[in-house]
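Could you please consider the sequence and fold following this short note?
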Amino acid sequence: MSIDLTGVPETLLIPLYAQWRENRRSRPLIKDPSVDDIVARLDPPFDKFVPSTVDRIIVILRKKIIDGMVKTHLSRHRGHAVVINLGCGLCTRFARLDDGGAEWFDIDLAEVEPFWRAAFPHPGNRRHFVRGSINDLSCLDRLPLAEGAAPIIVMEGVSMYLSEAQMRTLVTGLARRFPGAHFIFDAMASWVAMGSAFYPSITVTGARFTWGLDRPKSCQTWGRGIRLLRDEPIARHLNALYGPFGWLWRLNPLVRGAYRVVALRLGRKPAAA
């Protein structure tokens, strides 16, 4: 299947390629067979990407962190959990974490939909692709959420292609629709975002980084009641890949603040009448 995406939409191949490479390591931190199935179905043009250890580390560690947060949510709200994945690309988290009861909504552009459906030909009746844009959240108003649903919103590998104004608008829009919900996203430091040209996997797509986050607490100024729940630098998890050497990297302030996963609470859920 010819994947004729360009720009930011084409970057959905980067995490796919990184996990495909991770699967081939003798001791992968995350083994994800569903990625091998997708690659077999789509035959993506991996030859255009330069193998990058940095890309692989970032993708695998952010996946590990976000998986943990989503898994906690599913356990805490069993029978009521809803996972909303903004800019989903070809995310395989459903295959890794689904508990048999949660509803999953994958949100992405219309041009991504044919590749999503080819990658996941049998999504089941609890996983849904919804056409939509991060710049227009009206698609979220049509989600058929049941009474008492407990949504968690995830946005992975997207924030660095937005602006702070777009992030602020996104967060306030989510808070208005899902007050009290948790919003998880990953972000790079501003000094990293200035270096798009040094990431060959990005430059070949025509995309570029446009935003970085240096002070996670600043997110609390984006709207009334927005609270930082967790700031998780991926450097804290380097020991999972490199043992004691990973702990040494954590001592470097540049590495420690270069890339992180952030969890926000979107205001407070209204009290029951």
